[in-house]
């Protein structure tokens, strides 16, 4: 499997992670909470799960971006960081949303869980998504509070469903 990743020069932030799965022209962009330890050559548990879903659903490539670009195995640490979003993260999010909006073979899956509400970041990014209103993003489920489910905490047989925002 070919792969690619983009990191800050200091190594504190991961802007984007891409996995090329097969020859299908279908693309999937996933917006998660924050990067863990995956890089251009190694997967972490979340990336393994997302790659498995993308492959099962027939996508040829997967790009992962996040609400917060700060690399951390423990998402709860984000609230103690000076800048968990990172200086280039919104640029990367906007670039990928523009690609999704302009490409009929590209789908957007959001799955950041309840921790996405930190700094009201979930609503900031949902507004960006709404600004590209030509398409509807997908989720694999919602938490009790209505947040897009994180992929690690959902059945492996889950299917993408449209996410209708208020």
TrEMBL record:
It comes from the Bacteria. The lineage of its organism: Bacteria, Bacillati, Cyanobacteriota, Cyanophyceae, Synechococcales. This is Uncharacterized conserved protein. InterPro entries: DUF1643 (IPR012441).
